[in-house]
Amino acid sequence: MGSLNDKLVISDLSKGYKEKEVLKSVSFTVKDGEFLSILGPSGCGKTTLLRLLIGLLKPDSGIVVKDGVDITNAAPDKRGMGIVFQNYALFENMNVLGNVEYALKINKQTRTGARDTARRMLAAVGLSDYERSMPKNLSGGQQQRVAIARTLALQPDVILFDEPMSALDVATRLSMRQELKKLQASFGTTMIYVTHDQEEAFALSDRIMIMDRGQISQIDTPVNICEEPANDYVKTFVLDNLRAKIDSLSRYAPGLRK
User: Fold this and answer.
1) Domains observed in the chain
2) What tens digit of pLDDT does each residue of 82-96 get?
3) Which of 40, 64, 252, 254 has its CA 20 to 30 A from that of 78?
């Protein structure tokens, strides 16, 4: 059983493909309004976990509970969650406004006022002036904002992000980090963010869940992970990599080195 402010409670979640077990009895909770990053290298199971949470995959065993309700076998559109993919998945034949309002218009419950809702979400991500633009004419950062606005328009109380900034340049990534934190503060949405970038996880997260070969190595605040890494893997994969990045940067900006 979780506490009253637990948005998600995941218990003993496992998933395998053929003879390979990708997730091995993973258990954790996500607090209401929390920004949790799932950090790990390619192949550690983080994207599989995300797809299990949203309902695109079915677990071999285990339970997913949201707001006290078992949603393990619920359809993706019945979970009150949204997802932002790495490749944005925008409709190239629709303009920005059309992309954001599309899902609202095909649902009878949200059809009325769909355009007004879409415009409010575009304003929230700073794209009011781009309603009529086509995706191909937008920068990567702008396309990502459209994808986020489209997800926000459906008013999910949990948003999942699958490496959403991996294709963006450094300056755009830094800008998008700030935008995400502003949006979270504004909407109070619980956010779960999959990444392989240590710096990104530490910059964004209330807590970080570090994964290794289908299991959780540590889940804690950034400060606690730095001060008390759970094992050698966390120390090597997270802390040593962060220090290496800082050392590399400090060659060009000596003030970064303490």
Assistant:
1) 36-60+72-80+160-258 (3.40.50.300), 87-155 (no CATH)
2) 999 888 889 999 999
3) 40
